[in-house]
């Protein structure tokens, strides 16, 4: 799928929960491009488990990837974004940042915290460097991973509960992110854009 962009795509393998790997990633970007126009914090990890059975190690792993990792990427992106004309950061959270779910205490906590990370980042970085920061919060989206994690019957039942009578497609989230990265979204800052077909209404 990247064939037509092969001259403009740079793949860097990094564990965003490890600071040295995050720093190395942005050093490579800096050496290659000298600036960064947009950052989309999209990496995530979820361990479904009850509060009683979830271990501290599992909870910390979710925090490290879903929250600390997003903060570190933001931190080390700032020097590169100072050189951009329209610097933008978009954090990908979840509808579960607004609504609790059973056996998802760590994930829900991280996604709610990500929404606040966005607000704090927007308040600080816009006034200093004109870096606009927003969140996109999708609902269950039809990706290869979700199709592996849920049966067709579960997917159908979940879609029926949504006022839009379907689940999210990848393009639904992509289009929202592209808009927030664009010049047209220049006056949108510190917001959480829910892309969920209306599931939070029911």
Can you tell me the CATH topology?
Rossmann fold
Helical run tally: 6
Averaged pLDDT, please? 95
CATH structural architecture: 3-Layer(aba) Sandwich
CATH class: Alpha Beta
What share of the residues does DSSP label as strand, in percent?
5-15%
The largest sheet, given as strand count, sense and whether it forms a barrel, is: 4 strands, parallel
Strand line-up in the sheet with most strands = 1-2-3-4
Characterization of this structure:
The protein has six helices and four strands. By secondary structure, the chain is of the alpha/beta class. It has one domain (11-137, 173-193): NAD(P)-binding Rossmann-like Domain (Rossmann fold), CATH 3.40.50.720. It has a four-stranded parallel beta sheet with strand order 1-2-3-4, with helices on both faces. The N and C termini lie far apart (37 Å).
